[in-house]
Amino acid sequence: MKESFSLDALLRDNIRKLVPYSSARDEFKGEASVLLDANENAFGSPYSKNYNRYPDPLQHSLKDKLYEIKGVPPEQTFLGNGSDEAIDILFRAFCEPARDNVILVPPTYGMYEVSANINNVAYKKVNLTADYQLDLDGIAAAIDAHTKLIFICSPNNPTGNSIRRQDMETILVNFDGVVVIDEAYINFSKQPSFTKDLQEFPNLVVLQTLSKAWGLAALRLGMAFASPEIINVFNKIKPPYNINQATQEIVLDALQGVAQVNDWIKSTVAEREALTQALIKLPQVQHITPSDANFILVKLEEPRALYTYLVDLGIIVRDRSKVELCEGCLRFTIGTPAENALMLKAIAAFYSVVED
Q1: What are the tens digits of pLDDT across the range 292-310?
Q2: How many CA atoms lie within 13 A of 166 on its CB side?
Q3: Which residues form the Aminotransferase class I/classII large domain (predicted)?
Q4: For residue range 7-31, what is the model confidence (pLDDT) as tens digits?
Q5: Distance (Å, rounded) from C-alpha 94 to C-alpha 149?
Q6: Domains of the chain, with CATH numbers?
Q7: Residue 304: CA count within 13 A, CB half-sphere
Q8: What CA–CA distances, in Å, run from 235 to 93, 245, 303?
Q9: Would residue 179 be called left, alpha or beta, if left means φ above 0 and alpha means ψ between -120 and 50 degrees?
Q10: Cα–Cα dist 304/320, whole Å
Q11: Bond before 55 cis per omega within 30 degrees
Q12: pLDDT tens per residue across span 215-232
């Protein structure tokens, strides 16, 4: 187990001293017949179901159910309004504006940089290598006394590949700040989750989401898994009722559908392989990055023109052709068999017209 990590030394001074807001539902737990403590509307809601009472601020029932699925205890689980809330809290907890910095490894998820800018925190970019792996020497050289966070997305967005586990472990062992491993796409990968390693690495924060494999993107529920001490920091900073009651109820019900989700994952992986094999046969397709996610990054001829052509047909993909190390690439999310077939037909038609 890593011995050199000091959470207290990393925290911003104001966060270390912060006395969190104590809500009515923090001060009273249990059942009661008359609730007159939170200035709620006692008459109900103008809706078929009453939502006049504040929700559980720590989402105990939801975390208990996630424990059954993820194997991470509730005291090591934070639930946020998407993973983006957890990312923002990490900056606010550990990074002193205009003084501290974080390390990003592009091409990667763009919200890390956006959150850094919002919080006035400097970021150092250490590009991935040509095969989209970590540049360990470059990261080591970029770390200084004010480096508080390193963000690693694995499987990576927008490239789709998994980052080598040994390289991530090397950073966890040698970096005394917080290492954030974003596993938004882990359900589509054969790589094991780092949630199994939380006891070994006290400086580890693992991000996951219910927006991808679980099909609950509209509900905006993200997860952060870490030591109980780090989760306590998250809970100090978050708004009192950051996950609304309707979301808690719907997600709790949806979490009964593990078998359905597993079937969707198998179908997505099978379609990912089929789409890859079909695209690589096109002479205009130059390279497809092997993917462990629910999308593929494809380098091809005339990407911008193809993107516009597909948009005109109502087929929306992601243009990544101007992203460093993704030049000439479009990103295709894996759809249903019918959607994938429609897109393939459109791509073939586009290149047929171009060739003529």
Answers
A1: 999 999 999 999 999 999 9
A2: 0
A3: 49-347
A4: 999 999 999 999 999 888 888 777 8
A5: 8
A6: 7-256 (3.40.640.10), 259-355 (3.90.1150.10)
A7: 4
A8: 11, 17, 44
A9: beta
A10: 9
A11: no
A12: 999 999 999 999 999 999
Distances (CA, A) of 80 to 24, 57, 157, 208, 262: 20, 11, 20, 10, 24
- What DSSP string runs through 19-44? -----HHHH--S--S---SS---TT-
Phi and psi for 13 in degrees, rounded to 5?
Answer: -60, -40
Q: Greatest CA span in the chain, whole angstroms? A: 76
Which pair of structure tokens corresponds to residue 209? 């989401």
Q: Measured in whole angstroms, how far is the alpha carbon of residue 212 from the centre of its chain?
A: 9
DSSP 207: E
Query: Beta partners for 101?
Result: 122, 147
Q: Where are the beta strands (DSSP E) in the chain?
A: 77-81, 101-104, 122-125, 147-153, 178-182, 204-209, 221-225, 285-288, 295-300, 318-319, 329-333
Answering whether pTM is above 0.85, one says yes
Residue 180: how many CB atoms within 10 A of its CB? 23
Q: Which of 18, 38, 76 is nearest to 238 (CA)?
A: 18
Q: Is residue 192 classed exposed, middle or buried when 0-12, 13-18 and 19+ CB atoms within 10 A define those classes?
A: exposed
Which neighbouring-strand residues pair with 69? Answer: none
